[in-house]
Specification:
alpha/beta; nine-stranded mixed β-sheet; two-stranded antiparallel sheet; 9 helices
Length: 299
């Protein structure tokens, strides 16, 4: 046997680790693998002892990948994905081509799709399969080559490639505010209905954080919550209130006259968007072409 293979840990431990790293959760990994949480924890503990390296930090009943764990997770995920793909081919399946781009639903609708034709004009030979999601990368249902999501959301073992800036400011329908009152003073926002994307955990900016960032204490205000950001934007377009808008997401709606800036105050977010490399092993040149294009578009 090749000497390098003598260093290979038992596959059962690698499977448990890969699932836990991808979900960044022992409980979610146990559910996926049909094991108990205790069994997954034991497998990973044995793997850490064998590697003499801590792969997870355990804090308050939650687990977080260490830097070493994230690197090892990316390697293990890629290797197991390759094995699964080849096994599928041997069973009579076929290798799916193209590049799989996993993207948050709102960014996919309002930012990615309106400009993806520019990539196809440059690379007509490359098929890009866009997979959208509301949940973070740790809940991804299939392997991906590249992913785009808000910085700070759980990313599991996906490898960070780069971050990009964005700007956050209030928006509303043009006829929501009388022309004489627009744009509003930031303090006056509290007298209007504020539309909110509410999730647990709150992994992106919402009204309390936005007011705090601009140094305003608005007191009590009326807030209507929605479980997805596209719904928040559609409610704003329909004139139901004022929403927080991310510049990259709302630029098209503003250009089309469906939304306007409701207030001059703006928060700069220098690392708001993160782009990741996933475990799927699509054609290297095609993946690199898409990564390069995303760097340009997000610059």
């Amino acid at each position: 046997m090749d000497e390098a293979l003598n260093n290979l840990p038992p596959l059962s431990r690698l499977r448990a680790f890969e699932a836990a790293a991808r979900h960044e959760s022992f409980t979610a990994a146990a559910t996926e693998l049909g094991l108990t949480q205790t069994a997954v924890s034991k497998q990973i503990g044995q793997l850490e002892d064998e590697l003499r390296t801590r792969l997870f930090e355990r804090r308050n009943r939650a687990v977080f990948l260490t830097d070493a764990g994230r690197r090892f997770g990316a390697a293990v995920s890629a290797a197991l994905a390759d094995i699964a793909a080849e096994a599928s081919i041997l069973r009579g399946g076929h290798r799916r081509g193209g590049v799989v781009l996993h993207c948050q639903l709102c960014e996919a609708i309002y930012w990615l799709m309106p400009r993806l034709s520019r990539f196809h004009e440059r690379h007509p030979e490359i098929e890009v399969r866009v997979v959208t999601a509301l949940a973070p990368l740790t809940s991804a249902g299939e392997p991906f080559d590249i992913a785009i999501q808000t910085t700070g959301r759980a990313s599991g073992s996906a490898r960070l490639l780069f971050t990009a800036p964005d700007r956050v400011f209030p928006v509303c329908a043009p006829d929501y505010l009388p022309e004489a009152t627009a744009p509003l003073d930031s303090q006056a926002l509290a007298f209007h209905t504020l539309l909110s994307h509410e999730v647990i955990p709150q992994s992106w900016m919402d009204w309390p954080e936005w007011f705090s960032a601009i140094g305003v204490s608005p007191g009590r205000y009326r807030r209507i919550g929605f479980d997805s950001f596209p719904l928040v934007l559609q409610a704003a377009v329909a004139g139901r209130g004022i929403a927080l808008g991310w510049a990259r997401t709302v630029e098209g709606l503003i250009a089309d006259g469906k939304l306007i800036r409701a207030c001059d105050s703006v928060i700069e977010r220098p690392t708001e968007i993160s782009v990741y490399r996933g475990a799927r092993r699509g054609d290297h040149a095609q993946v690199e072409a898409l990564i390069g294009w995303l760097r340009e578009e997000l610059a």
